[in-house]
Sequence to fold (141 residues):
Amino acid sequence: MSRPDDRVLSAGPGCRVPASEVAWRFGPSGGPGGQHANRVNSRVEAELDLTSARGIDDEVRELLTGKLGPTMRVVVDASRSQTRNRHRALDMLEVRMQEARETRRERRPTRPGRGAVERRLRAKRQRGRRKSERRGSWSDE
Fold:
């Protein structure tokens, strides 16, 4: 496995952050686990300061800080291995930055087409006829 600090977090053009910019904290993972869980600091907290991180263009930095805030923080304790948790934390940071870069297209309101309107009205007329056929007249009794 490669070292996590050798990696570059890429979230598209104008955003290539070296992993050395990530601040790490380690601790024991929670929950049961016996001796291994009590002795090993496999829980990983990764924090990336978006306001001062190298490799981010100014316009991208403004977009990311607007959507994610000044710092991104990820906590991972899924694996028993600290190295695997570090890789997973970097993956999560990268995915969050990529999702924040995506701009959603503005929805153009549309109307139903003529065929859809005609089908709906035809179905309504048919339902109305069926209901009126079920009704009996009071004078026939």
